[in-house]
Description:
Two copies of one chain form a homodimer.
Chain A: H1 19-34, H2 41-48, H3 52-58, H4 62-87, H5 92-108, H6 115-122, H7 127-154, H8 163-181, H9 193-208
The structure holds a DNA duplex.
Amino acid sequence: MAQSPKSGRQRWRRRKAARPAEILDAALASFVERGFAATRLDEVARRAGVTKGTVYLYYRSKQALFRAVVEELVVPEVARAEREVRAFHGTSADLLRKLVHDWWRTVGLSRLRGIPKLMTAESGNFPDLARYFVTHVAQRARRVFAGVLRRGMRDGEFRRCNVEYAVRVLVAPLVFAAIWEGSLAKFDKPYRMQRYLDTHLDMFLNGLSVVPGKDGRR
Amino acid sequence: MAQSPKSGRQRWRRRKAARPAEILDAALASFVERGFAATRLDEVARRAGVTKGTVYLYYRSKQALFRAVVEELVVPEVARAEREVRAFHGTSADLLRKLVHDWWRTVGLSRLRGIPKLMTAESGNFPDLARYFVTHVAQRARRVFAGVLRRGMRDGEFRRCNVEYAVRVLVAPLVFAAIWEGSLAKFDKPYRMQRYLDTHLDMFLNGLSVVPGKDGRR
DNA sequence: CCAATAACTGACCCATCGGTCAGTAATCAA
DNA sequence: TTGATTACTGACCGATGGGTCAGTTATTGG
């Protein structure tokens, strides 16, 4: 990122190709940490190892930077999840377990953790971006989980229920965990995420199982 | 709130007693809508039917106003929930159902709906207030639900499990629903909250149910 | 080595907004 | 009615930070 201004060394380099990604990373980190309004573009620039002027060479405005973060960093991750599901062979319960844990690994433990918090927090100020996020990320991600639920019902592995609502109940604790971890968790009693996810999966699969008390494995 | 400046009428009234509550209501609405940083004190004042100067007669700073919102409007609601639980007689499952639906009525459908979103969004900028919220609201609210779970286990109504984690899984979809409704829901496919809550309760209580023969802990 | 090019800098502009306070007018006691 | 009190107003200030651009310096092609 930033280069140390050693004596006699050049003060900066031309790195046209690398700048956009570095600026996006810096912006994501700042937005997640402080929120959009409270983020200073000077800070984004500093994090990216450039000055504010350079940020404006690549993005027209602070808002354009926000949109680019979502389009370039978040949407691709959904596409990845869709591919993973298509490639999976096994029971639907196992697929659901894998999906939940993968989700936590690629969202909960990555720089993307703060995205749900950021999007819910700023939805009032940026309705266009919010709408884009709902259709291109939230609904698309729910569809991935819904597909697994339908698969399980078709195979007689899960009992029949309204997928529309079940998927919301399934996803809510995941998204909430991401929001919590990126915000208030540091002031709360620590807890183990794996166990939280397993408890949720346990309850949920139990609730979905054809015979209560038997969730298909174990 | 605001009085229309009809011709010849007086321009404003002295209403010392009513001002603080009206200002708090206005601040809550604005904070929830725009976030703390993006909220203009002129707007809060306008909503409360006063001018900015008056806000500063009752609250020392924007941040003090934020803290007052939490202390005066949110914390009392938790105390109310605690009383309700103590007064209840019936099965633990019924108590849980009542608690969940009551929670939605008094939080999800009220002006307090936006509080979880607000607190998670601003936790990075106001660590002191965040800590206060976690200990005086979040943990205390979880304790209410945890009490019901323990009650059910003691009576043999629920199977034994780790309350610490079960309560988190129980509460997450509720809090998330509040966040979602106050933010991105307006861009999403509409759905019926009652059915969402019932689906969650159904899954959760099913997961907690004592199953003949398979009653053990894990 | 020397232009020519353009990536990058950083000082600057100015609208915005938190916060202040001298003045004004509603209220009340006498 | 009138003077004293004080709740309230609104013009103002200073700091902040998004956005601009003339100038600087790394890079490249000849």
